[in-house]
């Protein structure tokens, strides 16, 4: 507590050890460790990561105070070494401190993601990639009645193909510098490294321990693979001559090469690569993880799977050749299933950490300036105070309330809230809905021979994202009408 100068009452928390603070009390999966600690110490907890004070907020009311009442005072981000490397010195959106760089990068990305001019082509890309997904799965299903499909690989290559076409203008079915089979590795390795705690961030001189333990070299290896991929994408744009503004990379390259106003904000190479890092990691991971947990829960709950497939097939009618996005509005139960998945498996369970820019009060506790805050949406989604039978997967619970995931309801925050809410929410949710619609309309799904629903592994893994540790492997059968 001496490290956190405060005139008022500080939140409670477990007693730490000298120097390392509470680090020895944390496991590899941070949101689960925080969950256990909050069950004992309450919804606002003070911990020390080495010499750095960290507050964990695990209640709807606390989250609302941080993200709404004090949104402005808490809308910066703490800096860590690995993040600095992957974001080209915080020149991205997700980890940039509050200020001009963040504001400008966010503006450019939002304008691009929601550009009216591109709505039609974005929609075409998503629909075409969904058709390709169905073709790939049909091939597996036709080869053998028992052919196994690793859905983690399928979902990562599906979301990566879409994001890379929307944001980078790269169609990987026509390029050979990225192996779509290995894209999952590239994203998961980068994301996990990015979210791992490093000694350098929490102790003076901790960089030495990181070098000896090999952490430093692991981070640099993962980063160099990603940097090499970005280099190919940028070179490819430069080769084709004047930029056509069809994607974010092209728009930003033009801003770097032809700044318009003398005094205006200068976009640099680092801004471009920082934004590419965000799009690739946040965009691909969020969608793939949501798809994976949804299919996992559906496989564990045959009643829900059956009801959802019946709704989808009744709404779309028989023997459709392809699915277009306008039907998304009509499949109500699908939305409830996704919300229930978000409640139990929020893809970013701690959102991204915030940093206070002034002294504030949360739930009556003093939180001084420059404190790191984590919101544990995993605990909030399982809190019996807000949810009846919280550990059960019951999509119908959302029929009785008006809760949505748009950042206005603090008991369900899969995309965060406030100034730093996810700018890719609409894109992300459309990819997830369209992917699931195709999978569930065209195929019936079963577990590998000899496996029962009780055998499905639910173990979590992860850094910033809640990955599923063991891949989900299922058998697709083309649906016969
Ligand atoms: C289902 C898919 C997705 C989920 C669940 C998700 C979730 C999140 C969450 C929880 C945050 C942190 C918000 C906060 O700190 O309050 C975030 C931030 C962000 N997301 Fe997403 N996301 C998804 C898809 C996407 C997509 C498709 C893109 C871009 C193409 C994207 C780009 C970003 C960026 C740039 C940020 C940082 C925003 C900032 O700090 O200002 N996300 N996302």
TrEMBL record:
Belongs to the cytochrome P450 family. Pfam families: p450 (PF00067). SUPFAM superfamilies: Cytochrome P450. It is a single-pass membrane protein. This is Cytochrome P450 71B38. One of its GO terms (molecular function) is heme binding. It is found in: Membrane. It comes from Arabidopsis lyrata subsp. lyrata. GO terms for cellular component: membrane. Its main location: membrane. Heme binds at residue 422. Keywords: Heme, Iron, Membrane, Metal-binding, Monooxygenase, Oxidoreductase, Signal, Transmembrane, Transmembrane helix. The keyword Heme applies. InterPro entries: Cyt_P450, Cyt_P450_CS, Cyt_P450_E_grp-I, Cyt_P450_sf, Cytochrome_P450_71. Its cofactor is heme.
């Amino acid at each position: 507590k001496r490290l956190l100068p405060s005139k008022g009452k500080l939140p409670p928390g477990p007693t730490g050890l000298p120097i390392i603070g509470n680090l020895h009390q944390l496991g590899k999966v941070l949101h689960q460790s925080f969950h256990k600690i909050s069950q004992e110490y309450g919804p606002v907890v003070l911990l020390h990561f080495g010499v750095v004070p960290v507050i964990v907020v695990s209640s709807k009311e606390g989250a609302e105070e941080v993200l709404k009442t004090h949104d402005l005072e808490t809308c910066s981000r703490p800096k860590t070494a690995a993040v600095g490397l992957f974001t080209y010195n915080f020149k991205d959106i997700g980890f940039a401190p509050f200020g001009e760089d963040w504001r400008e990068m966010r503006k450019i990305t939002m304008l691009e993601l929601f550009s009216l001019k591109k709505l039609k082509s974005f929609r075409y890309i998503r629909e075409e990639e969904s058709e390709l997904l169905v073709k790939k799965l049909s091939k597996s299903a036709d080869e053998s009645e028992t052919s196994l499909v690793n859905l983690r690989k399928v979902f990562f290559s599906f979301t990566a193909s879409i994001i890379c076409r929307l944001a980078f203008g790269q169609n990987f079915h026509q390029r050979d510098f990225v192996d779509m089979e290995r894209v999952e590795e590239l994203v998961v390795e980068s994301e996990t490294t990015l979210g791992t705690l490093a000694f350098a961030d929490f102790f003076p001189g901790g960089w030495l321990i990181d070098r000896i333990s090999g952490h430093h070299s692991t981070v640099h290896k993962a980063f160099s693979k990603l940097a090499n991929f970005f280099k190919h994408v940028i070179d490819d744009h430069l080769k084709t001559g004047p930029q056509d503004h069809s994607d974010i990379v092209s728009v930003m390259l033009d801003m770097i090469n032809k700044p318009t106003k003398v005094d205006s904000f200068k976009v640099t190479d680092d801004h471009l690569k920082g934004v590419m890092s965000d799009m690739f990691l946040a965009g691909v991971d969020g969608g793939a993880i949501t798809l994976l947990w949804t299919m996992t829960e559906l496989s564990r709950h045959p009643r829900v799977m059956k009801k959802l497939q019946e709704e989808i097939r009744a709404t779309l009618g028989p023997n459709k050749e392809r699915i277009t996005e306008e039907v998304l509005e009509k499949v109500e139960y699908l939305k409830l299933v996704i919300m229930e998945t978000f409640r139990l498996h929020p893809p970013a369970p701690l959102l991204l950490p915030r940093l206070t820019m002034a002294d504030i009060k949360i739930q009556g506790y003093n939180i001084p300036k420059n404190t790191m805050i984590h919101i544990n949406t995993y605990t909030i989604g399982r809190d019996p105070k807000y949810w009846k039978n919280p550990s059960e997967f019951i999509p119908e619970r959302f029929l009785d309330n008006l809760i949505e995931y748009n950042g206005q309801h603090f008991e369900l925050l899969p995309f965060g809230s406030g100034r730093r809410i996810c700018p890719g929410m609409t894109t992300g949710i459309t990819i997830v809905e369209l992917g699931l619609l195709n999978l569930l309309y065209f195929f019936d799904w079963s577990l590998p021979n000899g496996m029962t629903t009780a055998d499905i592994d639910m173990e979590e893994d992860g850094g910033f994202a809640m990955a599923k540790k063991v891949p989900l492997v299922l058998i697709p059968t083309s649906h016969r009408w």
